[in-house]
C-alpha cells in the first residue's frame, strides 16, 4: 500500500507541475485511445497502417489538416470532433508551451550567469569585470575569434545580467577564486584564461585556482603593482604576468619620439601592423632563424621579430640560431598566419 500511495503521489505531483513525464504519458494514452476508437468505428484507412495513423494524428493535433487522410463514417467523424481534435490540440499546445518556456528559462539563466559551459573547449575565459576595460577586452577577443572558435566566457561578481552579451557568455560568482565556477566556465578545456581582479590579491588568488584547475590553459594576469607582476613571473613561470607599461612608455617616448605609437599599433587589432605569435610544430629537420626570416617575408609578407625558446624570449635573434620545433615565433603582419598552412620545409630554403 505504501508503494502504491507513493506512486500515486508522484503521478499527482507530475500532473500538477505538468512535467514532461506526465505530458508524454497523457500523449501516449490519448494516441492509444484515439487509435482504439477509430478501430472500433471501422475506419480502416486510418488504423490499417500505424504510420498513416500517426501521420493523421499529428496533422490533426497541429491543426494543419492536409485532408489526405480523414474519417469516412459518421461515427469516425464524431470521434474526431469530440475526442481526437480537442485532445490533440490541447496536448500539442501544452507541449509547445512547455518547450518554449524551457527554452526561455535556459536563455534567462544564461543571461543571469547561471549557465553551464563545462564541455566547452578551445575558448577564452575572462575572470573579473572592470567597466569599460573588460568590455573592450572582450570585444577585441571576439573580433579575432576564428570561425569555429567558441565564444569567450566572462566570470564576474555582483552583476545581475551579462554585461557583454554581444561578445561573451557569462557566469556570475561571489568570488573569482572559485574552482567550481571555473569548472562551469569550461576552464579545463580553455585555451587561455585572463585574470584581472579588483586588486592584486584577488588576481593572485584567482591565478592559483586557475593553475590547479586549468592545467592546459595559458594564463595571463594583470597586476597593478609591477613588483607583484615580477614576483609572479619568477615564481609562476607558466603565468604571463602583465604590469602597467605607462611609465616605460613615457620614458621611452621622451628619449625616442613615437615609441608609444609603435607600441599601440603592435597591440591594436585594428592596426595593419600588429604583432602575432606563431607556434612552430615538430620539424623533420632543424631550420635556421635567418632562413625563416627571409622566407616568411618573401612568401607571406610578414616581418619576423623574435622567438620564444626554452622559456627565453629573444627579440634580436642571430641568423644562425636553430629551430628544432616547439618554439614560438613573433612576427608583425596585417593578418594571423595559420601554422598548418605553412610549408615549414620550404622556409628552410636558402637563396
TrEMBL record:
It is a multi-pass membrane protein. It is found in: Cell membrane. Its main location: membrane. One of its GO terms (molecular function) is potassium channel activity. InterPro entries: 2pore_dom_K_chnl, K_chnl_dom, NAD(P)-bd_dom_sf, RCK_N, Trk_Ktr_HKT_K-transport. Keywords: Ion channel, Ion transport, Membrane, Transmembrane, Transmembrane helix, Transport. Residues 30-99 form the Potassium channel domain. Gene3D superfamilies: 1.10.287.70, NAD(P)-binding Rossmann-like Domain. GO terms for cellular component: plasma membrane. It comes from the Bacteria. Signal peptide: none annotated. Residues 173-235 form the RCK N-terminal domain. PANTHER family: POTASSIUM CHANNEL PROTEIN 2-RELATED-RELATED (PTHR43833), POTASSIUM CHANNEL PROTEIN YUGO-RELATED (PTHR43833:SF9). SUPFAM superfamilies: NAD(P)-binding Rossmann-fold domains, Voltage-gated potassium channels. This is Transmembrane cation transporter. The chain crosses the membrane at residues 20-41, 75-101.
Amino acid at each position: 500500500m505504501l508503494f502504491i500511495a507513493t506512486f500515486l503521489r508522484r503521478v499527482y505531483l507530475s500532473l500538477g507541475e505538468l512535467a514532461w513525464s506526465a505530458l508524454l504519458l497523457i500523449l501516449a494514452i490519448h494516441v492509444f485511445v484515439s487509435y482504439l476508437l477509430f478501430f472500433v468505428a471501422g475506419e480502416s484507412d486510418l488504423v490499417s497502417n500505424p504510420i498513416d495513423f500517426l501521420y493523421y494524428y499529428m496533422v490533426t493535433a497541429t491543426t494543419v489538416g492536409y485532408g489526405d487522410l480523414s474519417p469516412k463514417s459518421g461515427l469516425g467523424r464524431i470521434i474526431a470532433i469530440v475526442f481526437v481534435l480537442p485532445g490533440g490540440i490541447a496536448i500539442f499546445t501544452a507541449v509547445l508551451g512547455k518547450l518554449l518556456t524551457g527554452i526561455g528559462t535556459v536563455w534567462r539563466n544564461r543571461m543571469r550567469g547561471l549557465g553551464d559551459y563545462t564541455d566547452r573547449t578551445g575558448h577564452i575565459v575572462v575572470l573579473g569585470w572592470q567597466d569599460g576595460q573588460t568590455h573592450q577586452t572582450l570585444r577585441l577577443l571576439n573580433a579575432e575569434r576564428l570561425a569555429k572558435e567558441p565564444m569567450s566566457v566572462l566570470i564576474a561578481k555582483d552583476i545581475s545580467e551579462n554585461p557583454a552579451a554581444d561578445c561573451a557568455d557569462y557566469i556570475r560568482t561571489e568570488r573569482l577564486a572559485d574552482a567550481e565556477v571555473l569548472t562551469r566556465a569550461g576552464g579545463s578545456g580553455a585555451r587561455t584564461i585572463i585574470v584581472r581582479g579588483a586588486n592584486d590579491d584577488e588576481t593572485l588568488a584567482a591565478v592559483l585556482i586557475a593553475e590547479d584547475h586549468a592545467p592546459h590553459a595559458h594564463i595571463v594576469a594583470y597586476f597593478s603593482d609591477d613588483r607583484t607582476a615580477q614576483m609572479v613571473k619568477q615564481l609562476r613561470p607558466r603565468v604571463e604576468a602583465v604590469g602597467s607599461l605607462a611609465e616605460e612608455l613615457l620614458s621611452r617616448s621622451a628619449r625616442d619620439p613615437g615609441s608609444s605609437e609603435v607600441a599601440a599599433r603592435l597591440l591594436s587589432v585594428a592596426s595593419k601592423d600588429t604583432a602575432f605569435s606563431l607556434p612552430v610544430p615538430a620539424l623533420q629537420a632543424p631550420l635556421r632563424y635567418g632562413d625563416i626570416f627571409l622566407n616568411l617575408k618573401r612568401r607571406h609578407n610578414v616581418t619576423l621579430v623574435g622567438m620564444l625558446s626554452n622559456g627565453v624570449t629573444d627579440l634580436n635573434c642571430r641568423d644562425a640560431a636553430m629551430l628544432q620545433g616547439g618554439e614560438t615565433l613573433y612576427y608583425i603582419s596585417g593578418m594571423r598566419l595559420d601554422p598548418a598552412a605553412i610549408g615549414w620545409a620550404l622556409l628552410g630554403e636558402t637563396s
